[in-house]
Each structure stands twice: as structure tokens, then as C-alpha cells.
């Protein structure tokens, strides 16, 4: 389960890298050149709390940014024509894959992540017996989700 979690997190970070969020795949902060663009897209499509930071240190944070950029690309009709980054981002999404299908995969990852968190908390509380039956099924499902993310490159 931990390997699947790491694979999913790695693929999400790779996706962010390919949409220009990082200069290098090893970066731990969003590139200054695109930070404000991504923050504005998240604000417009997520309605976060005021002054919310873009968090890329968690799967949830990565999913939020990706989900918002996907929703932006699916619904924006103009107003970005003079901006090279937004033009490139929109064109990168157009025709590359089914956005709705990818959003569904992100929803499934969120559900899987919640189960994974339950398992981790159960381990800390030494109460794994209640989750043992489902553990192998969910571990394999996490691997399948990581493979699905691979197909969206």
C-alpha cells in the first residue's frame, strides 16, 4: 500500500512537472513563473480560503491543482489569448485525453487515499484486524490507479 501511495504521488508530481509547475522534477516548490497562474486557477475553480497556499507536499494538494487546471481547460473559452503559459496549458490538455475520465480517476484516488489513511491510523492504534480483509484488495486497487495515472502523460 505504501508503494502504491508513493507511485501515485510520484505520477501526480510528474503530471505537475509536465504542465510547467516545476523547473525540475526534483523541485519542492512551484516555479515562480507559473505560481500566480496556478494560484489564480485554483482560486477560480476551487474557491479556497483567502490566502490559501498551493500545497504540493501532499497528494490532496497535488490533486487539487491538477483538478482545477483540468476544469479550467475544459471550461475556459477565451481571455488568455495573449499569455504564452495559458495558451500552452490549454493546448496541452486539448485532445490529449478525456478530461472527465481523468477527473473520475482523481476522484477514485481521493477515495483510495482516505482508505489508506484509515489503514495508517489503524496501524498506529494497533487495530489493523478491522481492516485486514480489505487491505489486499485496496493495495492492488492503488497499484491499478497508479497505472491509470501513467496513461495520462
Task: Summarize the structure in short.
The protein has 153 residues and is mainly alpha-helical.
Can you lay out the helices and strands and say which pair or pack?
Layout: H1 2-18, H2 32-46, H3 59-75, H4 84-93, H5 99-124, H6 132-150
Helix pairs in contact: 1-3, 1-6, 2-3, 3-5, 5-6
Strand content: under 5%
pLDDT averaged over residues? 87
What is the count of β-strands?
0
In total, the number of domains comes to: 1
Number of helices: 6
Query: What is the gyration radius calculated from CA atoms?
Result: 17 Å
| Class based on secondary structure composition and strand pairing | mainly alpha
Q: Can you give the helix content as a percent range?
A: 55-70%
Molecular structure report:
68% of the residues lie in helices and 0% in strands. The chain has one domain (2-150). Helix 1 runs parallel beside helix 6 and helix 3 packs antiparallel against helix 5 (99-124). The chain has helices at 2-18, 32-46, 59-75, 84-93, 99-124, 132-150. The chain is elongated and about 55 Å long. It has 153 residues and is mainly alpha-helical.
What tags apply to this protein structure?
single chain; 153 residues; mainly alpha; 6 helices; 0% strand; elongated
